[in-house]
Design brief:
This protein is of the alpha+beta class and about 170 residues long. The chain contains four helices and eight strands, in the order E-E-E-H-H-H-E-E-E-E-H-E. The protein is globular.
Amino acid sequence: MDEFWSQDFNLKKIYKCQISNNKYQMKFQIKNIKSKNIGHIKPASRMTNQRLEIISFLQATKEHPTAEKIYFEVRKKLPKISAGTIYRNLEILEKKDLVKRLNFGEDKDRFDAERSEHHHFFCQRCHRVIEINLPDAYQLKERVESSEQVKVEDYDIIFKGECNFCAK
């Protein structure tokens, strides 16, 4: 379970946000700012409104959007947000392992907030991305570790081809 500290200077309160079960469930511990030294809170570890909106959008879509698409959609709720803020926050969320950067051989990376074990199919014609559950993928990982005498820390399986809509 990850924890982030967020602060609301208007209300002079600090929120302790706990994240669990791949869903963002906010549990608030409200404290007076004077009773908590916020000088040591790093900006990268705070769950800001911008980061929450980015994650909320990513969790609500199965589209695997680019940063530009995320900017366009998040801007509907936060009109003053800049593209640079989106890019910086995506980097921070990626480092925190809350979003995953995906590259399917296109010019632009895509992003995914679904952290459960899954893989992808990428349609090379329409660029559609489909999430695929492969229960046997873990066995493949173990076979690679055993046969090659290596320790696999992370892996992605990406299938490429034509989706059923394009194949018609």
